[in-house]
Amino acid sequence: MDSSSLCTSTLIILITILLSLHHSHSQSVQSTRLLDLMIRDYTIRNFKLNLNTGTIQKIHLPSNFSGIDIDTVKLRCGSLRRYGSRIGEFHIGAGVTVEPCPGRVMLVRQNLGSNWSSIYSTGYNLTGYNYQLASPVLGLLAYNANPDGVATNPYEVNVVGTDQNPILIDFLKITSSDNPKTTKKNSSVLCACFTSNGNTTFSDQVSPYVCKGTRQGHYALVVTTKARGEDDESSGGGMVTSSTEVNGGSGGGKLSRWKVAVGSVIGSGIGAILLGLLVVAMLVKGKKKAEREEMERRAYEEEALQVSMVGHVRAPTASGTRTLPVMPDDRYKNTHLNHYR
Hints:
The chain has 341 residues and is an alpha+beta fold. Helices cover 39% and strands 24% of the residues. The chain has helices spanning 3-21, 23-45, 77-83, 113-116, 118-123, 172-176, 225-235, 252-301, 333-340; strands at residues 57-59, 69-76, 85-87, 90-92, 97-99, 104-111, 131-133, 138-146, 149-150, 156-160, 167-170, 189-194, 200-203, 210-213, 217-224, 306-310, 313-317. The strands form three sheets. Strands 1, 2, 5, 6, 7, 8, 9, 10, 12, 13 and 15 form an eleven-stranded antiparallel β-sheet that branches. It has a four-stranded antiparallel β-sheet with strand order 3-4-11-14, with no helix packed on it. The model is unreliable at 21-29, 178-184 and 233-255 (pLDDT under 50).
């Protein structure tokens, strides 16, 4: 294998390893996106065209999506901006904007329940942050809509609020239904917002079990694993919902961080080795090229014939000479010699 092939192979292997380090996380985040698209398609397929604008409709999903609760409503962009709206646990304040505004917008509210919320816990690595879910994941997505029905080519639009005109998410009903004693604000509970690019942002509650957002997306209540353990000891289960919503125990964060640390060290070591091989291959290639150029230079310097350029080609040349003729008759010898003098 020559040096150029070695460089190419090493570079391909290095890129493959770097991509594989992020493959698991990216695959989990993509699964949440796929779930949103499937819910959107079922919603559009089952949307009743004879419903008036502003009427909330419940969507029934197939049995393989059991546990997911879906509501949808079609609104005018102008009415949504002037009056706001309420769909399920989401209170959209007046003053929000829709970007871009297609005239009418279809809001889809999701309650993933205990069966499907765990994909956000694993996909967004909550245990790596030392958090775990304390409520089902609630989602609010918006799509373009036609005046006479749903859009044939739907695309997602952005519902954007501000700190003065936010989107409020009320988790009180879905958390208190499992535990009626959870009526006061718990300082260890935070609001989590799961963004479409794979990031998670945490913020304080604006009131007991009420979160604030400035755009559509997926939200949930989370609690630290340490606080979960303290609540379990003090109140026999605390405010966290059923354990099926939570992915990993109190040691999950440590285990996850340990795996991340070991994986990072191994990946860095392999990357350093491959990078070293790439550098060595480049040095070998450069050395061979320098030796070849040196041999050519010496060959040109030690050649017996003079080398001249003929166009773009180097060609050997010799100085011009002429052999004096030998005359058979001595009578003409002197005359011939005198002629050349």
